[in-house]
Write a structure and sequence with these properties.
Blueprint (H helix, E strand, L loop, with lengths): L1 E6 L15 H17 L4 E4 L12 H8 L7 E4 L2 E2 L5 H15 L3 E6 L6 H4 L7 H17 L2 E4 L7 E5 L11 E5 L3 H10 L3 E4 L9 H13 L9 E9 L3 H23 L6 H7 L7 E3 L1 H15 L3 E5 L7 H34 L1
Parallel strand pairs: 1-2, 1-12, 2-3, 3-5, 4-5, 5-8, 8-9, 9-10, 10-11, 10-12
Antiparallel strand pairs: 6-7
């Protein structure tokens, strides 16, 4: 069971003071957070790509590369790379470079993008949303499999027997498919035999169990070994020494962000009752003391089949020291409990099956 962190490198107004942290300061803070995550034994750190004022990381590979020489074991991934509006050659080169700097710890999490600001910025039409992703994923996978590429598509100039460099340390460079719960994305990942990441940020996580089964079934039918395909989730959450403190600190910035996005996307108003309901065992918020969060992650593993859990923290602007403390608690208290319990549970399950 792998456990880590994901972030969108937010620069929203502080809900207490109204002040907005600079992009530069938040980027430097995130590098410190990645270094700490490595020091406390977490497995992975993901940085999401966005192209809007309230998120500072338009280039996850650059942010991750800043931390790479100062870390030893933690895997470094985008969360996600908006592949539909990117050049797959450049994406591959950026993450192959990161892979070299980190000595084989880079990953690409490719997604179609739930935020669409990059499409007009780079001159793409949203009506081509699905076709763009399919075509560019095809090219990206070819780049991971071969040094020289012959490729032709609709949206990008053809490549005629050209080498793409640098080559990564890992062969192939890992590519995960990110999905918000769309069955089409899940099936695509299964057919291609690629690891899957589910954004479980609302409702009951148990509702994602059928998607995991669909993914595994599709992979098996396509000739892939489902037991070798990891399934990850990223979910909003926060950890403090006690659950009440965690809830009181995490709710205000989360409410702010969810209601800003809600106005953009037509969601209902996000209030305290919504927040508290999501903190229950069957909800999608992982907020509380280490015991509470560990219990929920174990519950997710047992009932959904997740093999990598990424805590998305913060949601909205929070004090850097609070985020660092949450990362510390996740690595030193939550992760050991989860790993121990999952290992014990799986040993018992295997013994029962034998």
């Amino acid at each position: 069971m792998e456990i880590g962190i994901s972030t969108f490198v937010e620069t929203t107004p502080d809900v207490q003071t109204g002040k907005v942290i600079s992009h530069a300061q938040r980027l430097r803070e995130v590098v410190e957070e990645i270094i700490l995550a490595d020091q406390v034994g977490l497995d992975v750190f993901g940085v999401g790509e966005h192209h809007r004022e309230d998120f500072a990381a338009s280039s996850p590979a650059v942010v991750l590369a800043a931390a790479a020489p100062q870390t030893k074991k933690i895997r470094l991934t985008s969360a996600v790379t908006v592949l539909s509006s990117a050049d797959p050659v450049r994406v591959f080169q950026d993450f192959a470079t990161l892979d070299g700097i980190s000595n084989g710890r880079a990953e690409i999490m490719a997604g179609r993008g739930s935020f669409i600001e990059s499409f007009p910025l780079f001159g793409y039409d949203l009506k081509d949303y699905d076709q763009l992703f399919e075509e560019k994923l095809d090219l990206l996978l070819q780049l991971t499999q071969s040094e020289k590429v012959n490729w032709k598509g609709k949206f990008r100039p053809a490549i005629h027997n050209l080498g793409v460099y640098p080559r990564p340390v890992q062969n192939p460079l890992p590519v995960w498919i990110g999905s918000g719960g769309n069955a089409q994305s899940v099936v695509r990942a299964g057919l291609l035999g690629l690891p899957l990441v589910l954004a479980i940020i609302g409702g009951s996580p148990r509702h994602f169990a059928p998607l995991v089964k669909l993914y595994k079934k599709t992979a098996a039918k396509a000739g892939h070994d489902p037991s070798k395909l990891p399934v990850a989730s990223h979910s909003h959450g926060f950890i403090a020494e006690d659950t009440q403190t965690a809830a009181e600190k995490f709710f205000p910035p989360t409410q702010y962000v969810m209601n800003v996005l809600g106005r953009e996307r037509g969601w209902g108003y996000y209030d305290r009752s919504t927040f508290d309901q999501a903190r229950s065992l069957e909800g999608a918020l992982y907020v509380g003391d280490p015991d509470t969060v560990a219990e929920k992650i174990i519950h997710l593993r047992k009932h959904v089949g997740i093999t990598r859990f990424m805590l998305h923290v913060p949601v909205g602007t929070m004090p850097h020291e609070d985020v660092m403390n949450a990362i510390r608690l996740l690595g030193t208290e939550v992760a050991p409990r989860v790993r121990e319990e999952v290992s014990k549970w799986e040993t018992e399950e295997n013994s029962f099956m034998e």
